[in-house]
Specification:
Layout: E1 12-14, E2 18-23, E3 26-31, H1 33-39, E4 42-46, E5 53-54, E6 59-65, E7 69-73, E8 78-83, H2 85-89, H3 92-96, E9 105-109, H4 121-129
Antiparallel strand pairs: 1-2, 2-3, 3-9, 4-6, 5-8, 6-7, 8-9
């Protein structure tokens, strides 16, 4: 079952419906509630490999739903430190808990100035309202 619409205030958002939870020089990345809702039931997460580089504004993986395949866009650049194996093995966890168990990857941020380009929750809500 999909989660209720929510956009946590402690996250930074990318206009392509991806989020980053930043702690120090690392960030956990995922897709927003809006993205998982628009895609529908997710059936596959094509994850990058640990050690790969995520590049801001570029795809680092794909999510596949019963409706479509969509690139996952990185909100920040950095080295992939960890892939959420639960999201790979149980992609429905992304629908159920997009900000919790459904996170996708953890990275070491390579350019902290990129954080300045991300949206806060109020700005992201404007993006969603225009979809």
């Amino acid at each position: 079952m999909a989660s209720a619409e929510t956009y946590p205030e402690d996250l930074k958002y990318h206009p392509e419906h991806d989020w980053a939870r930043v702690v120090g020089d690392e960030a956990v990345l995922g897709i927003t509630w809006w993205a998982q809702d628009a895609l529908g039931e997710l059936v596959h997460f094509e994850a990058p490999a640990v050690g790969d580089m995520a590049v801001k504004d570029e795809a680092y993986g794909e999510v596949e739903s019963v409706k479509a395949v969509s690139d996952v866009i990185s909100p920040l650049s950095g080295e992939i430190l960890e892939v959420n194996e639960k999201a790979v093995e149980e992609p429905e966890s992304i629908n159920e808990h997009p900000y919790g168990e459904g996170w996708l990857v953890r990275i070491r941020i390579s350019d902290p100035t990129e954080l300045d380009d991300l949206l806060d929750v109020e700005a992201y809500r404007v993006v969603v309202s225009e979809q």
